[in-house]
Batch of 4 targets.
Target 1
Amino acid sequence: MIRTEELTKVYDGVKAVDSLNLTVEKGEVFGFLGPNGAGKTTAIGMMVGLLEPTGGKCFVNGIDVTKNPLEVKKITGYLPDGVGFYPNLTAVQNLKYFSRFYGMKDSEAETRIKGLLEYVGLGNVDKPVGSYSRGMKQRLGLAQALLNDPDVLFLDEPTNGLDPQGVIQFRKIIKEQAEKGKTVFFSSHILDEVQHVCSTIGIISKGVLVARGTTDEVRKKMSKDETVTIIVKVKGDMPRMSDPRIINAVYNNGSAVIQASDDIRDAISEELFSKNMRVRELRLEEKSLEEIFLETVYRSE
Ligand SMILES: Nc1ncnc2c1ncn2[C@@H]1O[C@H](COP(=O)(O)OP(=O)(O)OP(=O)(O)O)[C@@H](O)[C@H]1O
C-alpha cells in the first residue's frame, strides 16, 4: 500500500510535484498518467526514497519513506525510466551484484535470478548487457525490480522501448504480480498503456493530481462537456423529435444525431414508439478518455 500526504517537490521555485495526496491499496495496479514533465518521475523518486521531498510525507506499507528509506527499499522494487546496468557484465552478473544489497545468499540468488530471467524473456541470453537492445534492458530492469520479491512495485514508463510482444509480456507480468497481492504503481504518458493493465488511474498535470479513480470515473470527472450526444437509427424516415431538452439535432433519412442537455434516450424511444417507428439503434456517444485526456491535459500545456 502506498500513501502520500501533501507530497511536494520544489526545484528552483517551481513545484514539480504539488501537494500530492494519493492512496494506492494493496493489490491495486495504479496508472500514473501525465504528459512529459508533469512530475511523474519526481513523485516516484520521493516514493522510493531517492529524492527528498520539499514537503509532505510518503508511506509504503505504513513505513515513512523519509525516516526509513532502507526499510522501504527492502519491500519495494523500482524500474526507473532509463535503467542503468554495468555494460561489461552479463544479466546474471548484474543481478547477482544487486542481490548482495538485499543480503541474499549466493545459492538463493542464483536460483531466483535464473527463474526471473526466464520470466522476463531473457532466459537464453548470455552476453554483456552493453550489447543489449533498449527493450532487453527494460526486461532486465523488470527482473531487477522483482529480485527481492517486493510487496510494492514502482514502474516508471516500463514499456518504453519494448516491441509489441514485449509489451504484452510486461502487461501479463504486471497482472500476475497484482494477483499475487502486490501493489503496482505504473507511470506512463500513454493512456492506452495504462488502460490495459490498471484498475485505477490518476492524472497528473504540472505537478497536480487533477483526477483519480477508475477510468470511467476519471472520464466523467474530466469531461467538461455538459451535453450528451445520442445516435438514433430507425426503419424508414426518422421523424423530428420534440423533447425540449434537445439542443441540436441533425436528421438524415433513417437516422439522427441528437445533442441534448441530458440522457433522453427513454423519451426518444417512447416518442418513436408512439409514432409506431421501429428502432434499429439508440445509443449514447460518449467521448473516450483518450479524447478527454488530450483535450484537457495536453491542451493546457
Ligand atoms: N533535478 C531537477 N532539477 C530541476 N528541475 C527538475 C529536476 N528534475 C525534474 N525537474 C523538473 O520537474 C518537472 C517534472 O519533471 P519529471 O521528470 O518528474 O516529469 P515526468 O512526468 O516524469 O516527465 P517524463 O515523462 O518526461 O519523464 C519538469 O518541469 C522538470 O523539468
Target 2
Amino acid sequence: MPSPRSSRERRGGSGGRLEFLSLSQRGPAAPDSPSRRREPAGAAAAPLPEEDCMKLNPSFLGIALSSLLAIDLWASKRLGVCAGEGSAWGSARPLMKVIEVSGHGIPWLLGTFYGLCQSDSSAAREVLLNLLFALLLDLVMVAVVKGLVRRPRPTHNKMDMFVTISVDKYSFPSGHATRAALVCRFVLRHLVLAVPLRVLVVLWALIVSVSRVMLGRHNMTDVLFGLLLGYALYGVVEHCWLSPATAPALFALWSH
Ligand SMILES: CC(C)=CCC/C(C)=C/COP(=O)(O)O
C-alpha cells in the first residue's frame, strides 16, 4: 500500500504543502483545539498528519458542496418521473422525447442553415449567420466543459437519445439547456414577435430544461448550469456579432 506522501509525489507534487490547499487543508491545530487538549501532559505537540486533518476538519465549502451534490442527486432521481416506461409518468415519455428533439442541435443547425440558404434579405442573412455561429459556439463550449468535468449521467437514465456525440455520455452541463437559453435570448432579441409568441419561446426553453430532469437525462445542477452558460454565451455572440463590416468574406459567401 503506497504511503500518502509517496502518492502525493507520484501525482506530480513538489512535496510542498501548497499542493492540497484548495478545499480542505488546515494549518496546524490551534493551541486550544480538542486535538491539542487530548495530548498527554509534557508530550511534544506533533501536528496531526495532513490527511487526518482533512478527514477530521473538512472545510465548510467542502461540506456545503457535498451536501448540495447529495441533494441534487436525490431530488433529480425523484423528479426523473419519465426516466423509463415503467416510471411514475412513464406514459408521458414519448411527449418528453418530442420536446427533447425540439431542443436538439441537429434540427436547429439544419433549420438555420436552410433558412440562410433561402434568405433573401441582408438583415435575415445577418441574423441567421449569427444564429449559426451561436449554435456552433454552444456545441463546442458544451463539448469542452463536458469533456473537462466528465460527470456521468444519472444512473436511472436510459441512453436512447437521438444522435449523440462521444462527450454526450457526460451530463454536465445539459446541452439542451444551454441551447434553450441561448436560442431564447437570441430569438427574443433579434426576431420581432408578438407578445404571446415571446411568452411561448420562454415557455419552450423552460419546458425543454425541465424535461431533461424528468427524462432522467440530467441532474438539476447540470440543467441550471446549462441555462446560465447558454445565457452567458449569448453575451459572447452579441460581443462578436458578425456583420458585413466585420466579416465581409463570410457575407460574400451568402450573398446571391
Ligand atoms: C450531434 C449534435 C449536432 C448535437 C448533439 C446534441 C445533444 C445530443 C446534446 C446533448 O444534450 P444534453 O446534454 O442536454 O443531453
Target 3
Amino acid sequence: MGHVLVMGGAPGFGGAALLACQSAARLGAGKVSLATAPEHIVASLVRCPEVMAHGIRGGAEAAELPNNADVIVVGPGLGQAAWGQAVLQSALQADKPLVVDADGLNLLARQWPDVRRDNWILTPHPGEAARLLNCSVADIQSDRPAAAQALQRARGGVVILKGAGSLIAGPTGLVVCPYGNPGMASGGMGDVLSGMLGALMAQRGDVEFSAWLGAMVHALAADRAAEEAGERGLLASDLAFYARKLINP
Ligand SMILES: NC(=O)C1=CN([C@@H]2O[C@H](COP(=O)(O)OP(=O)(O)OC[C@H]3O[C@@H](n4cnc5c(N)ncnc54)[C@H](OP(=O)(O)O)[C@@H]3O)[C@@H](O)[C@H]2O)[C@@H](O)CC1
Ligand SMILES: Nc1ncnc2c1ncn2[C@@H]1O[C@H](COP(=O)(O)OP(=O)(O)O)[C@@H](O)[C@H]1O
C-alpha cells in the first residue's frame, strides 16, 4: 500500500538508493519508484525489476516525479554536488511526507539551515547530527538524548539519532531502541532504514509511529540475522528477509 519515491544515487553511489528501494518494497510499499542518475538505471532494473527506475539528469526532470508519490525518501547516495542539490530541492518543494537521510541531511545543514517540517523523519548518524547542530561529534555523543531532542526542536518532525541505542525524538517524547548489534556498522545499513521508514509512512501515515516502528524493526531484523549467521559479515541487504517476517506475524 502506498507509493514511495526514493531520490538518490549520484554517480558512484547507486547502491545506496537501490537498497532503500528494496527495503521499502519488502516492508509493504505497494509501489516503489526510484529517481537516480541515468547510469544506474540498467543495474537497478536487473537487481530489482519491481522498482520503477527513472534516470534524472537534473532539476527539471526531478521536479515532476514527486507529484505521484505518497512519501519521498531523499538522501541515500545523493552526494552534495549540483545534482544532489537539485534533487533535494525538488523533494522539499513537493508538499509530501519526507524521510531525509545521509547527504540529504548534509545538504540541509549546509544550504537549508532554517527549514523545518512536521511531516518528515530525519535519520542522522552522529556525524550528520553534528553537522546539523553545528557542533562536534563528541558533543553529540556526550549527551545523545539532549542532541536528539535539540535537533527535533530545531527542525520539527521526528529525529532518529542512529548508533548503538538509536534514539527516536518526536513531538510526544523520546524513545530508546533496545535492539541492534555492532554487525550493523556496515555500508548501506542506514539506507535500508530510510527505505523501511518510507514504506511504513506510506502505509500508516503517522510520522512518529512510523519512525518508532521502523527503527525497532530495522534493529530487530539485524539481531535475528546475526543470531542465525553471526554479526561479522552482516550485510544491509540481509535485513529485508527478517524485517518482512517481523511485520507479517
Ligand atoms: N553502496 C552504496 O552506494 C553506499 C553509499 N553510501 C552513501 O555514501 C554517501 C556518503 O556516505 P559516507 O558513509 O561515505 O559518509 P558519511 O556517513 O557522511 O561520513 C562522513 C564522515 O562522517 C563521520 N561519520 C560517519 N559515520 C559516523 C558515525 N556513526 N559517528 C560519527 N561520525 C561518523 C565520519 O567522520 P570520521 O569518523 O571519519 O571522523 C565520516 O568521515 C551517503 O550519501 C551514503 O548514503 C553509504 O550509505 C554506503 C553504501
Ligand atoms: N553497535 C551498533 N549497535 C546498534 N546499531 C548500530 C550499531 N552500529 C551501527 N548501528 C546501526 O546501523 C545503522 C548505520 O547507519 P549509517 O551510519 O547511516 O550507515 P551507512 O551510511 O553505511 O548506511 C544505523 O541504523 C545504526 O543505528
Target 4
Amino acid sequence: MKIAVIGVGNMGGAIMKGLAHGKQDELIAFNPENPRVDKLAHELNAQRIVKADELLAAQPDLLIFTTPAPITTKVAAQFAQLQNALVLSAAAGVSIQELKAAMPTASVSRMIPNIPVAVNAGTIGLTMDPNLDEDRQKQLRDAIATLGDIIDVKEEQLDIVGTVGGCGPAFVDVMMDALSDGAVMEGLDRQTAYQIVASMVKGSGALAYATKEAPAILRDQVASPGGTTIRGIAALEKAGFRSALIEAIKASCGE
Ligand SMILES: NC(=O)C1=CN([C@@H]2O[C@H](COP(=O)(O)OP(=O)(O)OC[C@H]3O[C@@H](n4cnc5c(N)ncnc54)[C@H](O)[C@@H]3O)[C@@H](O)[C@H]2O)C=CC1
Ligand SMILES: O=C(O)[C@@H]1CCC=N1
C-alpha cells in the first residue's frame, strides 16, 4: 500500500516509524522543507515530498493527516481531487464532517493515536467512515494494525479516548520523571533509575492489560499489610495524587 503521512512532526514521525517497522508499505513523508524530516525519510527509506501537486501525482492509497489541528482542513483541501484514496485524520478535535467539507469525494475516517505507535505499542481510538464497504474497511484497518491496539469508538467518544490514550503518555512521562527524581534522591544513579522506572511501567501496563483486573485489585496485590507500599500510597493520597490525575483529564478535555 502507498501511504502518505501529511505533517511529519512528533505524531507523523511516530506513525512513519511504526509503519516502517511493521510492513513493506511504500511510505511518503509530506511536510514543508525541514532537514529533520529529510533525515527521517532517508532512515525509513520513505519518499520525501514537499509540494502538493507532486503528492497528487504520486497517487497514494491512504493519506494520514498529522498536521496541526487548526490547519488540517486547509491542508486536506489541496488533495480534494484525489480519487479513491482513503483518508485517516489524527487531528484532534477536527470532525469527519469538517474534513468531508474539505475533501467531499474522499472516504474520511478519524483516529486518535498515541506516541508509542513509534514502537508498535500504540493505543489507537478509531472511528471508521461508516460508508466504507467491508473490503475497504479491512484495507484501512490492516494498514494501521501494526501500530498497536485499535479500539473502535463512536466519533463523539474520540475526544475522551484521545485525552486518556493520546495525552496519557505525557502524564505517565511526568510520573516517571518524578519517580526517577525520588530514586536519585535516595542515591540511585539517573540512568539506572530511568531504566527501572520504564521497565516497571511497561510491566504494570502489561499485567493490567493481560489480566483485565481493576487497577485497585492489582494495587492491593502489591500493598502488603504493614508493608512499605501502603505507606507510599498513603503519602500519595495526602499529596492529592489521584485528584491531580482526575483534574488533568478534565483540563485536557477543556473543562
Ligand atoms: N503528539 C501526539 O501525541 C498526538 C498528536 N495528535 C494530532 O497530530 C497532529 C500533529 O501533532 P504533533 O505531531 O504533536 O505536532 P507537530 O507540530 O510535532 O507536527 C506537525 C507537523 O505538521 C507540519 N506541517 C505544518 N504545516 C503543514 C502543511 N501545510 N502541510 C504539511 N505539513 C505541515 C509541521 O512542519 C510539523 O512537522 C495534531 O493534529 C494533533 O492533534 C493526535 C494524537 C496524539
Ligand atoms: O496535545 C495534543 O493536542 C495532542 C492530542 C492528543 C495528544 N496530543
